[in-house]
Amino acid sequence: MKDKLLLAVAGVLVVFAVFKPYLENITVVDNKPTVVVEEISEDQKKLVQDIVDAVKNGSEDRVVDGKHLASLYTNLAKLIELDNEDKLIESTSDIAQANSLSGRLLKLDLNGKYDGVGKLSSDYVKSQIGSDDVNLDDELRAKAVEAFKSLAWAFNEGSK
What we know:
Helix content is 63%, strand content 0%. It contains 7 helices and no strands. The longest helix has 21 residues, at 62-82.
């Protein structure tokens, strides 16, 4: 039995020697999420720069947290953009609630990690769609979509 094991090990070594696999091509799986965010205007970049800075100056978890939040905001923007028939998101208060629940939706513990980022993102959304609770028309819906795309960009940039 011991001889068979030795013979098997020797066979494997011979295979490696003959075929000379390129072991450097083997990559380690990266557990950092990847997300594709749309480029935003320079004006929008200026408006969300404080969010980028708050994330960059926050916890070392920003790489993962920022990517998760960027992905969520990208998906929320798409949901709002495509929500013409079902009307899951009907009003500006729905938008504000979706924004305030973002960290909890992903089960991220963001408390104390990123100084003021919750208020900054909330204030930014309000600046784009207003603070009054009104039903979304086409114009407000488009503004909400752009706001969430900008937040996605900001969290993605902050994660770098």
